[in-house]
Write a structure and sequence with these properties.
The structure holds two protein chains of two kinds.
Chain A (H helix, E strand, L loop, with lengths): L1 E4 L4 E4 H18 L4 H10 L4 H24 L6 H28 L2 H33 L13 H4 L3 E4 L4 E4 L1 H17 L4 H12 L3 H27 L4 H22 L4 H21 L9 E4 L5
Antiparallel strand pairs in A: 1-2, 3-4
Helix pairs in contact in A: 1-3, 1-10, 2-3, 3-9, 3-10, 4-7, 4-9, 5-11, 7-8, 8-9
Chain B lengths: L10 H4 L12 E5 L3 E4 L6 E9 L8 E7 L2 E12 L2 E4 L3 E7 L2 E5 L3 H4 L2 H7 L15 E5 L2 E7 L5 H14 L3 E4 L3 E3 L4 E8 L6 E11 L2 E14 L1 H12 L1 H25 L1
Parallel strand pairs in B: 2-15, 8-11
Antiparallel strand pairs in B: 1-3, 3-13, 4-8, 4-14, 5-6, 5-7, 9-10, 12-13, 14-15
Helix pairs in contact in B: 5-6
Classes of the chains: A mainly alpha, B alpha+beta.
């Protein structure tokens, strides 16, 4: 069964797209990430123009994150205040990111930058997570007690002014670090077409050292706000949101997302992190290696800028 | 609703016609459809160009059918290996190239007419008219500075061929050397296959009649490819009211996410 997409101006198979939505939704429910870093490369490889893929999957990320955050908020695990501060930075970052994306696309360098970003960002985060979670699993096997968590955050974080209380996260820190993390992730996420959960979650754990129970819910909350702004900006600036594509993807996505959330409780946290680390590493390597593979045809037609 | 070009002879052909006066139009053509509706079930379309050579002589004649889609600018980049990495060159903009092109003929074009006619009339994928200036021009485009419009010089042909090669690969450009069939003595037909990603807009179906290697008659018809119904509504809204479209789309997505979580929680 095929359907014609009005903005992408091509027809796609509905079942393939719903299946992709289910799969990515499942991953995002399981790990509490948006899943965009998996979906964008698949959509592009199916022939959908990159700008349309990036803008339309925002709808899918929005829906799955909303349905997931509802499940988390009922168990009181969303720090709305922390989420709002990070989202404020994220919105500014998204505006900058959408502009950078537009300029790089017109210069024909967007896929280079995206590939390098995937390789560096996903590669380093995936590697760090894998290392950390594997050593945690090893220790558990040997029956050793986990090392005492280093409560120390980087000292400079305490030196910053404008301190705020974040009771749910158990923090009393300046709002500058979370806002700066939000800004950075916002730029990267608008350019890479991802929600940024895989960046936010480690940042919350390793830099801000928030209470583990609120990390996933809060990151989803901030992803919703940043993605909302990204999607509207892409619609206004690039006219590249294909609502039909978004609806097909999210139909599968919400189902997969709920299944993922249910499945999440069956795994240990470090096992989940190890699996996610492998997925992130693979996505990063797959995109990055394309830089080293000789192209089939040295020439490539790139989409024109919309006039 | 249906625009039909007057059966006039395009300027390029006027001096090419030998002694025949423009009034002696001996070619009569039409399309099986002059409007193609692109709805959600659109998977490409097939249109037949048919026609008759009115003046019946026993002289053999050749027919060339050229269908070209709406013009659009295209950007082409070349992958260059730098220190082991495959990087993109600066994009080169080709303007005025058709988004779709098909040349069907009753026999291979090089047997029908010479190089100069093919080139002047734009017959065949290799002779598609593209308004690409040969001289170097660095301009500001879409707010981006230093975009190279054309500084290809000697490489020009190679880049041009790359455009047609890539378009042929996605079956948007094609040469069909035996695509025009004479079904009866003076009655001919040619099929146009539009893929599902054919551009939206107005297409032009041109038919040339050749005798002894010279064009003697010409006819042109327009073909509209339009989005209809829901597809059209979405496309129009996205372009005319982008703010509303973006906000409503985002709200629908959030709403569906909320709805889904409700449903799943009740279970």
């Amino acid at each position: 069964m095929d359907i014609y997409l009005p903005i992408a101006e091509m027809s796609v198979n509905v079942l393939t797209m719903v299946g992709l939505g289910v799969l990515v939704g499942f991953v995002s429910g399981l790990f509490g990430v948006g899943g965009g870093f998996l979906m964008a490369p698949v959509l592009v490889s199916l022939g959908i123009p990159p700008s349309v893929a990036v803008a339309s999957q925002a709808g899918h990320v929005l829906a799955t994150s909303t349905s997931s955050v509802m499940s988390y908020s009922q168990s009181d695990s969303v720090d709305y205040r922390m989420g709002a501060v990070m989202a404020a930075g994220g919105v500014v970052g998204a505006i900058i990111g959408v502009e950078i994306f537009r300029i790089l696309r017109l210069l024909g360098q967007i896929d280079l930058v995206v590939s390098v970003a995937y390789l560096l960002v996903l590669g380093s985060i995936g590697g760090m997570m894998l290392n950390e979670s594997l050593s945690a699993m090893l220790r558990r096997r040997k029956g050793e007690s986990p090392p005492r968590p280093k409560v120390k955050r980087p000292v400079w974080i305490y030196g910053l002014p404008f301190k705020m209380r974040f009771p749910r996260s158990g923090l009393y820190i300046s709002f500058i670090p979370p806002a700066a993390i939000g800004l950075l992730v916002g730029i990267l996420s608008a350019m890479m077409g991802v929600g940024g959960g895989f960046l936010i979650v480690p940042a919350m754990i390793y830099i801000l050292r928030m209470k583990a129970s609120v990390v996933v819910g809060t990151s989803l909350f901030q992803i919703i706000i940043t993605t909302l702004v990204t999607m509207i900006l892409q619609a206004v600036r690039n006219h590249s949101v294909d609502m039909i594509l978004a609806l097909i993807l999210l139909a599968g996505g919400v189902v997969g997302g709920q299944a993922g959330i249910r499945m999440a409780s069956r795994f240990r946290a470090d096992e989940l992190r190890a699996i996610m680390a492998v997925i992130i590493l693979m996505a990063g390597l797959q995109m990055g290696l394309s830089l080293f593979v000789p192209p089939q045809d040295p020439f490539v037609l790139v989409p024109t800028g919309q006039q | 609703m249906v625009a039909v070009l007057p059966p006039a002879i395009p300027p390029a052909i006027v001096q090419a016609l030998p002694e025949a006066a423009p009034s002696s139009n001996i070619l009569s053509t039409d399309l099986t459809q002059n409007r193609i509706e692109v709805s959600s079930s659109f998977q490409g379309a097939k249109v037949v160009v048919y026609g008759a050579v009115v003046e019946s002589r026993d002289q053999p004649s050749d027919v060339v059918v050229v269908v070209s889609g709406p013009k659009a600018s295209m950007r082409l980049i070349r992958k260059v290996q730098v220190a082991g990495l495959w990087l993109n060159s600066r994009p080169v903009v080709f303007e005025g190239a058709p988004g779709f092109y098909m040349a069907a003929s009753s026999q291979p074009l090089d047997r029908i007419t010479g190089f100069s006619n093919r080139r002047r009339l734009g017959l065949g994928v290799d002779y598609i008219a593209m308004d690409t200036p040969r001289d170097t021009k660095v301009v500001t485009r879409y707010g981006v500075r230093d975009v190279v419009v054309n500084s290809l010089e000697d490489d020009y042909l190679e880049w041009r061929q790359a455009v047609t090669r890539l378009k042929q690969k996605s079956s948007l450009y094609s040469d069909n050397p035996f695509g025009v069939r004479f079904v009866d003595r003076n009655l001919f037909r040619a099929e146009i296959d539009l893929p599902s990603d054919a551009p939206i807009g107005t297409y032009k179906a041109e038919v040339w009649l050749f005798r002894d290697g010279e064009p003697v008659s010409y006819s042109a018809k327009l073909l509209r490819v339009e989005k209809v119904g829901f597809e059209r509504f979405i496309y129009d809204t996205a372009h005319r009211r982008p703010w509303m479209y973006g906000i409503v789309s985002a709200l629908i997505c959030i709403g569906l996410g909320l709805g889904a979580s409700r449903i799943f929680q009740r279970r």
